[in-house]
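USER: Fancy drafting a protein?

ASSISTANT:
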Amino acid sequence: MARYSVNKVILVGNLGREPELRYTPSGQPVANFSLATSRGRTDPNGNWTDETEWHRIVAWERLAETASQYLHKGSKVYVEGRIQSRKYTDNQGVERTSFDIVANDLTLLDRRQESGEGMDDWGDGTSAQPQRPQRPQQQKKPTGDDETFASEEFDDVPF
């Protein structure tokens, strides 16, 4: 019998600090940043309160460089990755365990900047998604009747 397991985390929150980009001795880029997620709830006295959780995010390679370049303190971001634990000894000699989110996908969720001309979601004039070429408008061939869909219009449909 095959054994399967899943270690997947999806977070949407705001950066608590600027990403810190470093390089390993072998030259591999790694970025660390904190992400705050919040939820609202009613306390036992009936008062509305927000609970904030802080998550340590680690991104590697090209994703680390991208995070360092485009993410800033306060940015709203979607993070997808996995939980990874690591053990360390603190300054008092106590062994502790830390849980990090190792990111494998990041998506900037901030709205477009309204003030700049030609600015896109990233705010620097570059596009996160490649622009699709515009499809030329096809002229509808007259068929002599009111048939809306002429078969010539759908010759390039892939299915």
